[in-house]
């Protein structure tokens, strides 16, 4: 099965490979596509829209059975204080769409305040950690969990959830 991941980020491709390695025989290809949302999606609705757009655009980019879109965003969560990192995944075959999400991480106030003021999370994490390209390495998830959950793991959980309609008969 050929899967297109709607991103050139190697972390997202690895997350898809990890999520499907025991369920389907898959060839996973990274296909940079437009998300159709802002660089820093805000709120669950925009983040889900970005994932869906990436999945559809990846599927349309070639001869693939499934398109996979992974989108990270930030959101306020009802009943919880602060700003959270959120991750949503969409998988489509052109007719059906499966959705899933990775874990959410509350951003420390010093980071959340900067993002709420309009900065993007990736560059803020680079600045706070004194590293380059954190989003292509451990991600904020790795930094905020002391490495217990890295970005690959967090996104793979969302991919596994979104793949449900395509790997089981339960849907």
Concise synopsis of the structure shown:
The chain is α/β, with parallel strands linked by helices. Helices cover 39% and strands 21% of the residues. It is built from seven helices and six strands; from the N terminus they run E-H-E-H-E-E-E-E-H-H-H-H-H.
Polypeptide structure, described:
Helices cover 39% and strands 21% of the residues. It contains 7 helices and 6 strands. The radius of gyration is 15 Å and the shape is globular. Helix 1 (10-20) crosses helix 6 and helix 3 packs antiparallel against helix 4. It is of the alpha/beta class and 171 residues long. Strands 1, 2, 3, 4, 5 and 6 form a 6-stranded mixed β-sheet that branches. It has one domain (2-167): Alpha-Beta Complex (Maf protein). A hairpin with a 4-residue loop joins strand 4 and strand 5 (97-101). The chain has helices at residues 10-20, 44-60, 109-116, 121-129, 139-144, 151-162, 164-167, and strands at 2-5, 27-30, 66-76, 83-92, 97-101, 105-106.
